[in-house]
């Protein structure tokens, strides 16, 4: 029998949601956790209703809202990038099936958005098997991720980079040899420390090309999203920040979080005045050094983008599905067509 958890009961590092997320195979395990999911909810869409259902070893996490002229929508709590999966554990599909029969949901079958499904996995196949009778299953654009193995430590990591990138890194190191640039590791362990660290991050971001162009984390709701996330990460000790500093002034940062042998990169930036010094490359290198010292096995860089190819040799894909309810004119369910 499932319990109806609330966000407040699950909003801590060792919650059932985070435990089950860690035990379930995921392409992006960090983004299944509360630090990512709940921070998104508070910053982007706080007015949706949250649904949690669980068994002993499984949990589902959805947000719901009414879309005018369409109907009721159930979606992953983080529904912007669709990085995480709302179905966690071996009983997750059955939990979702039961949720869809509950009042007040069952008076009008909702649309359901699913994200983070690994193609061909047992979870993916179970979704198709259980819901094909009542829903048209529509394949949306998949999500593509870039990752890098940290096997072999720093030397092993660099051996998998291009000769051109290794050459650029050596040049950048020599370029900064005569400058007073140092790299400061920062591990926030309290909300106060997280807020101080985030203020430094924003100060750097405001001087970067993203801050100057008003397209970075200084803009809402992204500003609140990463602030809330760093706060949560400080309570679990999972946050990792490195600052590049020149003469006591922050000129760059790189920011992410760790979970069970994975590091998830979140943001990095540097002052535009330092763009000719390859500060971004050196921040990445310093980050890899720290992660290797901690025994982290994989560096997850998130959504596949052109610049990430040189830093990450692995590519993964997840499926995003829309369960579209189909009913006959009399209201009875008709058989669906699976568009995948």
Q: Give the biggest sheet.
A: 14 strands, mixed
* Tally of strands: 14
Q: Which residues form runs of ≥5 with pLDDT under 50? A: 328-340
How much helix, percentage-wise, in residues? 25-40%
Mean pLDDT: 93
Distance between the termini: 33 Å
Output the CATH class name of the largest domain. Answer: Alpha Beta
Approximate strand percentage: 25-35%
- What is the total domain count? 2
- Shape descriptor reads elongated
Q: Which structural class best describes the helix and strand composition?
A: alpha+beta
Would you kindly provide a brief summary of this structure?
The chain has 340 residues and is of the alpha+beta class. 33% of the residues lie in helices and 28% in strands. It folds into two domains: 7-144 and 317-339, Aminopeptidase, CATH 3.40.630; 151-296, Gcn5-related N-acetyltransferase (GNAT) (Aminopeptidase, 3-Layer(aba) Sandwich).
């Amino acid at each position: 029998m499932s319990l109806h958890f609330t966000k407040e009961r699950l909003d801590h590092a060792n919650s059932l949601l985070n435990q089950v997320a860690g035990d379930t195979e995921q392409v992006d395990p960090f983004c299944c956790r509360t630090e990512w999911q709940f921070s998104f909810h508070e910053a982007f869409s706080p007015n949706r209703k949250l649904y949690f259902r669980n068994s002993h070893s499984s949990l589902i996490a959805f947000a719901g809202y009414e879309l005018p002229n369409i109907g009721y929508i159930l979606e992953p709590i983080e529904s912007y990038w669709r990085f995480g999966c709302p179905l966690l554990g071996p009983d997750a599909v059955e939990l979702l099936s039961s949720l869809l029969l509950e009042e007040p949901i069952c008076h009008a079958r909702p649309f359901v958005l699913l994200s983070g499904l690994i193609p061909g996995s047992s979870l993916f196949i179970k979704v198709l098997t259980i819901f094909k009778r009542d829903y048209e299953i529509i394949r949306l654009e998949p999500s593509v991720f870039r990752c890098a193995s940290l096997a072999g430590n720093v030397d092993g990591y660099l051996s998998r980079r291009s000769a051109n990138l290794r050459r650029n890194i050596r040049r950048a190191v020599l370029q900064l040899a005569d400058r007073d640039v140092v790299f400061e590791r920062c591990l926030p362990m309290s909300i106060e420390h997280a807020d101080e660290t985030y203020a430094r991050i924003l100060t750097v971001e405001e001087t970067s090309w993203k801050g100057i162009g008003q397209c970075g984390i200084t803009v809402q709701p992204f500003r609140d999203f990463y602030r809330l996330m760093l706060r949560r990460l400080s309570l679990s000790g999972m946050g990792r920040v490195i600052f590049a500093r020149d003469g006591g002034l922050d000129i760059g940062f790189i920011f992410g979080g760790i979970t069970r042998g994975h590091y998830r990169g979140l943001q990095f930036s540097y002052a535009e005045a330092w763009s000719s010094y390859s500060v971004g490359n050196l921040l990445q290198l310093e980050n890899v050094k720290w992660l290797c010292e901690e025994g982290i096995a994989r560096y997850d860089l998130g959504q596949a983008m052109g610049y990430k190819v040189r830093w990450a040799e692995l590519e993964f894909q997840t499926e995003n599905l829309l369960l579209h309810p189909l009913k006959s004119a009399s209201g009875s369910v008709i058989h669906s067509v699976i568009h995948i």
